[in-house]
Amino acid sequence: MLTIKNLSVDVDNKNILKDFNLDIKLNEVHAIMGPNGIGKSTICKVIMGDPNYLVTTGSITFDSKNLLDLSVTDRARAGIFLLNQTPIEIPGVTNAEMLRLSLSQRQGSMVSIFEFNKKMEAICKKLDIPKSFIHRGINEGMSGGERKKNELLHLWMLEPKFIILDEVDSGLDVDSLKIVCESINEYKKEHNCSILIISHHPEILKMLKCEYIHILSDGSIVENGDLTLADKIEKEGYKTYSGINKVSDNQNEE
After folding, report:
1. Strands 65-66 and 2-11
2. In the chain, where are the structural domains located?
3. Is 135 helix (H, G, I), strand (E, B) or coil?
């Protein structure tokens, strides 16, 4: 599904990732862990095509496509979805307008408004979201929990094949986090998709049934394991991983 080989990335003339490798197959759930400021969110931004992140060497292949040759729009069309750490507010553009246009762009013709509204209402019911969200400005005036639920609305409507969760617990209380994780698990069960999680917390990884854990240090992955590795990090921290080089990419990472 997604293969990253020997990737090096610079931001503001600083090397953030170097010789970074990762392979995620269909239906797998992977997590990347590491200290704050080490470059975890950089991986998300590079996959999505943020122009502030310069790929100097290496490759990213997604679903047999050279991802680095695709625009941000084409990456989204290919089925990549990022659930942001802090979803931005877009006043004046409603969820319905954005989603119907996105779906129409993907299929090459306008989506039937009747079928579109029917699907949106069904998803709002599934997520326990008020129907008023359909015609509400994207994340406009929403709390942290509401924004994450709104992102889930986008997820279920757009039906991506590859989901990136960047600190999904940010801004959520315990109950809201449980709802978000249950919804993501349900989506994965109903759709063939892969998931990449950026997180510090083993409990979230357990809730999302994460199978593979990767520790990021000094720009590359230095250890791989399962959930027992996440438990070890929670108990011992990252002190056992020498050479950790804390970096700043001026993006308020994590």
Report:
1. unpaired
2. 2-92+161-236
3. helix
In 3D space, the residue among 217, 213, 244, 245 whose CA is nearest the CA of residue 231 turns out to be 213
Per residue of the chain (254 residues), give pLDDT as tens: 899 999 999 998 899 999 999 999 999 999 999 887 778 889 999 999 999 999 999 999 999 899 999 999 899 989 999 988 788 889 899 999 999 999 888 877 788 889 899 999 999 988 888 888 889 999 988 887 788 888 999 999 999 999 999 888 777 778 888 888 999 999 999 998 999 999 888 888 999 999 999 999 888 898 999 999 988 888 888 877 755 444 433 444 44
Give the SS3 label for residue 55.
strand
CATH class, 2-92+161-236 region: alpha beta
Return the closest-CA partner of residue 167 out of 33, 52, 18, 10: 33
